[in-house]
Amino acid sequence: MADRLNTLEKAAVIARECDRCGNCTTVCPLYAEKDIESSAARGKNNLALGLAAGMLEPSRRMLDAANFCLLCRTCVDNCPTKVETDEVMIALRQHLTDELGGVTLKYKGLGILMKSRTLVRLSAFAMALMRGLGVNGLAPRGLVPSEYTRRRFLSAYAGPALLGAPAAPSPSAIDSSSRVAYFNGCGMQMMFPDAAACSRRLVAQHAPGKLVSVDNRCCGLVHLAHGMRNDFIALAKENIRLYENTDIIVTDCASCSSTLKHTARYFDDDPQWRERAQAFGKKIMDITEFLVKSGHTPQRKTGARLTFHEPCHLGRGQGLRKEPRELLKAAGEYVEMKGADTCCGGSGSFHLDFPEVSDRLLDKKRDNIEQSGAAIVVTECPACLAQMQKAARDSNGRFVAMHISQVL
Predict the structure, then answer these.
(1) Burial class (CB in 10 A: 0-12, 13-18, 19+), 239
(2) Where does residue 352 rank: exposed (0-12), middle (13-18), buried (19+ CB within 10 A)?
């Protein structure tokens, strides 16, 4: 009981910083779709405060309101006092889940899957088999996306002479003694294995020595976001142990890199793990961050007009906006689209829980991509990439979607 109250009080401490100015209502993608107070940060913070003060009772309706959040941090970016409403919602979801009898069957099953590397590998194999048989379109909500491969991209924009050829080695800005490892994200492994293979080749190309091989665990974002905090902590401890003897950990999933970089905040009250978690978080690099620091020069693709969908966990989650765009400008003809940093509606499992709202957000994103005139929309998060592929499917061939590693 004390732990539950502690979780709620931590949420309330942050929520009390909200001065109810209403800035969040002007920028929240969800408030624009469903203009009720609980859709925006101000209303969500009020829910946390009402619970903490004993004025409200835990309910499924309240949990639904907490889940109706993209965790995109648009409100945080535009808040005069930078109230971290996404952290309030994560804590509130945990508290309500505990109070209402535990995690729902759907999230419990998803949590079990993501905790097990064996199950992740089996899922990756099953998805690859479905793609090979051409039946992946039968999966709901694009959960088994097709994959636009690097080979098809190069065939269209670089010609057969360059197929499979790596870029020339660049002078590395990484220390010559750095032990570099790749963090294999679950979503990338299961949904986009070709893109993950491209990422590993890029990281290995710029690692000073041989790439350190680590059979890592899930970053734990699904568990953290849906009331399974104990599982998140257990996964974090395992990853900290597994990467203890590395200096740099590179991942090609913006959600993973953002989660891993912020691991230490969940060990503030644990003197045994606090310093180890802080050291671990400092090792994490997003792949575009790593490539820019390493001096990577992409092969320029003639005729490739590119635009970028900025994942929320990359731009607002890590402040990495310049790096991917610099790399894409070097790789082809880059054009910035309107609303590049607006959430696409994927947001982990949000598109499964609130499909109608997710589809409306994606329709706006598709319109912006089409208006840019780009032939390829590039992103760096498997959930975002799955959304971009759905948008591409509905665009009648006007553009395709790719992970940034496939382009670089």
Answers:
(1) buried
(2) middle
Bridge partners (DSSP) of residue 333 are 305
Distance CA 202, CA 12 (A): 43
d(CA 88, CA 262): 15
Q: Which of 381, 348, 114 is nearest to 254 (CA)?
A: 381
Asked whether residue 104 is assigned to any structural domain, the reply reads: no
Number of structural domains, the chain?
Answer: 3
Q: Is the pTM higher than 0.85?
A: yes
User: What is the C-alpha to C-alpha distance for residues 187 and 175, in angstroms, rounded to an integer?
Assistant: 30
Give the amino acid at 35.
Answer: D
- CATH number, domain of 119, equals 1.20.1050
The reported pLDDT for the residue numbered 218 is 95
Q: d(Cα 42, Cα 85) in Å, to the nearest integer? A: 9
CB under 8 Å to 327, separation ≥6 — which residues? Answer: 288, 291, 292, 296, 298, 404, 408
Q: Is residue 117 domain-shared with residue 69, that is, in the same domain? A: no
Range of the domain at 397: 297-407
Residue 152 and residue 137 share a domain: yes
Nearest of 350, 346, 348, 349 to residue 365 by alpha carbon? 346
DSSP 162: G
Angle, to 10 degrees, between the axis of helix 105-115 and the axis of helix 117-133? 100
CA separation, residue 383 to residues 20, 354, 386 (Å): 32, 15, 5
Distance from C-alpha of 85 to C-alpha of 248, rounded to nearest angstrom: 30
Report the alpha-carbon distance of residue 205 to residue 294 in Å, rounded: 10
Residue-wise pLDDT tens digits, 32-81: 998 889 999 999 999 999 999 999 999 999 999 999 999 999 999 999 99
| 118 shares its domain with 255 | yes
Query: For the chain, what is the radius of gyration of the CA atoms?
Result: 21
Which pLDDT score is estimated for 24? 94
Whether residue 232 is found in the same domain as residue 259: yes
Is residue 348 a contact partner of residue 319, using CB atoms and an 8 Å limit? no
Predicted confidence (pLDDT) per residue in 274-327, tens digit: 999 999 999 999 999 999 999 999 988 888 899 999 999 999 999 999 999 999
